[in-house]
Design goal:
There is one protein chain. The mean pLDDT is about 90. The chain has about 350 residues and is an alpha/beta fold. It folds into 2 domains: about 210 residues, FAD/NAD(P)-binding domain (3-Layer(bba) Sandwich), CATH 3.50.50; about 120 residues, FAD/NAD(P)-binding domain, CATH 3.50.50. Strands 1, 2, 3, 4, 5, 6 and 19 form a 7-stranded mixed β-sheet that branches. The chain has 7 helices and 19 strands. The protein is about 30% helix and about 25% strand.
Length: about 350
């Protein structure tokens, strides 16, 4: 994996984003014939997987039974020996038709031309604002996971979680296992948003989930000390020194605006999303989009989408036997359907 070398000026295929989708796309596209480059703005390949310690479920094809950071390590090792060039610490800040991608690294800036392009830029956390949100001790889930799972640092002693989606449930379980007291999970909806398997883990630990509730304010002098929560017609005052915001994710689609791409709004998939065909190709540009950039789903689905995008890009560029690639693409599409339906 190349972290500081300057990339070439031209490749057959460029993959932007080295998370689960982008890594799998690059590996699938790198057949030894195509010149493939993978760019990621992090210090290592793996994206969100790096700070995830829970085990994944599904099939062995999607690393079932491994923890997130173990999957990231496996992808890093595969990329290390694959016939492709991977660059970390590189931000792709613009795209031009052609396509040409504009890069920024601490040591250089560059414009790289390519025949094919796969975008796997992932997602960012949704903002949630309330009185007291700027107090020290109020953290987003990603930052909190980095502190606890990567650095081994507990941000406080007692935490309140906002959001009962998969991220909120998983973070609550991880913090309890790490030694923090979880005062509860606040959910505005009347039902738990995440998978029942994650909810069961949390409830077995005795962590309360406050449905049909919302955080009104975080109070404190110099840092978070108390959270005021509305639960039905009642108000609860909870003594906490940490508040974790797990309000969900939204696709990171900013680069698509450079291409003039038509975007849609789908609340169930995280908000603003691109329009794609079955092979994940954009409707108005010869570009493929995979992973959470195309809609928020599980990491196992992101990896499967990455494989599909890599295969489809190879076929579009003319690398590999067309009939064999088409058969693999059909299998990948069926695999995606099976994952989404819970059959795989």
């Amino acid at each position: 994996m190349r972290a500081t070398s300057v990339p070439r000026t031209e490749y057959d295929l460029v993959v932007v984003g080295g998370g689960p989708a982008g890594a799998c796309a690059a590996l699938q596209a790198a057949d030894g014939q195509a010149r493939v480059a993978l760019f990621d703005d992090g210090d290592r390949i793996g994206g969100q997987l790096i700070r995830q310690t829970h085990k994944f479920f599904g099939s062995s094809d999607n690393y079932s039974g491994l923890r997130g950071f173990q999957i990231a390590s496996a992808l890093q090792e595969r990329i290390r020996f694959a016939p492709l060039e991977a660059f970390c610490g590189v931000t792709v800040w613009a795209i031009e038709h052609g396509p040409t991608v504009w890069l920024k690294h601490a040591d250089y800036s560059a414009a790289v031309k390519c025949r094919g392009l796969i975008l796997a830029c992932g997602a960012r956390e949704k903002a949630l604002l309330f009185p007291g949100w700027t107090l020290p001790g109020v953290l987003y889930a990603g930052a909190l996971q980095t502190m606890v799972n990567l650095w081994g640092v507990l941000p406080g002693k007692r935490v309140l979680i906002l959001g009962s989606g998969n991220v909120g449930l998983i973070v609550a379980y991880q913090l309890a296992q790490a030694g923090m007291e979880v005062a509860g999970i606040v959910e505005k909806a009347r039902a738990i948003g995440g998978f029942q398997v994650h909810a069961n883990r949390v409830q077995r630990l005795g962590i309360p989930i406050f449905l049909d509730s919302e955080l009104l304010e975080v109070q404190g002098y110099g840092r978070a000390e108390r959270a005021l929560v509305r639960r039905g017609r009642k108000r609860l005052g909870l003594a906490v020194d940490t508040v974790c915001i797990a309000a969900g994710m939204r696709p990171q689609v900013e680069l698509l605006r450079y291409l003039g791409e038509t975007l849609d709004y789908d609340e169930a998939r995280g908000g603003t999303v691109p329009l794609r065909d079955f092979s994940l190709r954009l409707k108005t540009n010869d570009v493929f989009v995979c992973g959470d950039m195309g809609g928020i789903e599980e990491a196992s689905i992101a990896m499967e989408e990455g494989r599909l995008a890599g295969l489809a890009a190879r076929r579009a560029l003319g690398f590999g036997q067309t009939d064999a690639l088409t058969a693999e693409i059909n299998d990948a599409e069926k695999g995606l359907q099976a994952l989404r339906s819970g059959e795989k």
